[in-house]
TrEMBL record:
Keywords: Membrane, Protein transport, Transport. This is AP1M2 protein. Gene3D superfamilies: Mu homology domain, subdomain B. Residues 98-131 are annotated as: Disordered. GO terms for biological process: intracellular protein transport; vesicle-mediated transport. It comes from Fregetta grallaria (White-bellied storm-petrel). The keyword Transport applies. Its main location: membrane. InterPro entries: Adaptor_comp_med_subunit, AP2_Mu_C_sf, Clathrin_mu_CS, MHD.
Length: 131
């Protein structure tokens, strides 16, 4: 066998495409998605943790919360969620959210997450609502 040759092989892939990371395209969202009503449902779930000593002094206090969104918006609009910039929060969960640049007053650069809807295997029929 000859391992060193002057011939080359090219993998035929059809059309060449720019990676979606460059174009910022959303591969899981079909074009032309329409709902009868544009709706956003927001669930805020908070838990208060408090540790008090026997003499009544507060040893530990914290509020832990999660925000869950269910979004039924036609097309591909950008949805921004404004939060109090004095609140420390950590974004965890789906990778479909990003932090906004904050152009409007009150929209801090790193404190205005811009959530995007999660990937769905199939879209519900037009105007359908799931719970």
């Amino acid at each position: 066998r000859r391992y060193i040759t002057q011939e080359s092989n090219k993998l035929e892939t059809g059309k060449s495409r720019v990676p979606t990371t460059v174009t910022n395209a959303v591969s899981w969202r079909s074009e032309g998605v329409k709902y009868k009503k544009n709706e956003v449902f927001i669930d805020v779930i908070e838990s208060v943790n408090l540790l008090v000593s026997a003499n009544g002094s507060v040893l530990l206090s914290e509020v832990v919360g999660t925000i869950k969104l269910k979004v039924f918006l036609s097309g591909m609009p950008e949805l921004r969620l404004g939060l109090n910039d004095r609140v420390l929060f950590e974004l965890t969960g789906r990778e479909c959210r990003r932090l906004g640049s904050g152009t409007a007053p009150g929209w801090g650069g790193d404190t205005s997450p811009s959530p995007r809807p999660p990937p769905t295997p199939s879209l519900p029929p037009q105007g359908a609502r799931t719970s």
